[in-house]
Amino acid sequence: MKKWIIWVSWEYFVAAELSQMWIIATLTLKNTPKIDILATNLETWKFVNIQVKTMSIHNNAWWRLSKKDEEKSTIKNHFYVLVNLKWTWNLPEYYIIPQKDLAEFISNDYIERLGWKENRNDTTMRVFDPYRREKQRIFWEKYKNNWGILNLN
């Protein structure tokens, strides 16, 4: 039996969520660094820049981030939207997190994890795993489906 893999740009799902709130959401070209969506409220003229990271249905454990994700951004109003696809036929969960908060959290978490094991090699990969790690679960709960954090209204 063949398995069909459907490749979807999950940025469209995030843009659709924003559009339901009367926010103009424009996807950037794929070579735009650190920004996948530009979102603006035309009534208030507030705007945000969004980076989308997706956890696949088959992963269902953690988001892969990199060392560059822990660096404080110089981009104004920069947010991450972490998309959890969970499992087939369920609505995705969205975690809307200010970039500076996520950067600080994963940086501190990575330093703490390096200390757990002596002679551990440094790596560029960072892991955000709120499903198996209590500290991360507590951190992320306030961001779950909380679109108000974008402060676009």
Report on the architecture of this protein:
The protein has 153 residues and is of the alpha+beta class. It is built from 3 helices and 7 strands; from the N terminus they run H-E-E-E-E-E-E-H-E-H. The chain has one domain (11-150): Trna Endonuclease, Chain: A, domain 1 (3-Layer(aba) Sandwich). The strands form 2 sheets. The chain has a 5-stranded mixed sheet with strand order 1-2-3-5-6. Strands 4-7 form a two-stranded antiparallel ribbon. Strand 5 and strand 6 (93-98) form a beta hairpin. It is globular. The termini are far apart.
Q: How confident is the prediction overall: mean pLDDT?
A: 82
Q: How many domains in all?
A: 1
List SSEs in N-to-C order. Answer: HEEEEEEHEH
**Overall helicity:** 10-25%
**Looking at the structure, what is the overall shape?**
globular
Largest sheet: 5 strands, mixed
- Per CATH, the class reads Alpha Beta
Instruction: State the strand order across the main sheet.
Output: 1-2-3-5-6
Please tally the β strands and state the result.
7
Q: Uncertain regions: pLDDT < 50 for 5+ in a row?
A: none
Strand content: 25-35%
Structure class: alpha+beta
End-to-end Cα distance, whole Å, is 49 Å
| Count of alpha/pi helices | 3
Q: Which value, in Å, is the CA radius of gyration? A: 16 Å
CATH topology call: Trna Endonuclease, Chain: A, domain 1
The CATH architecture category equals 3-Layer(aba) Sandwich
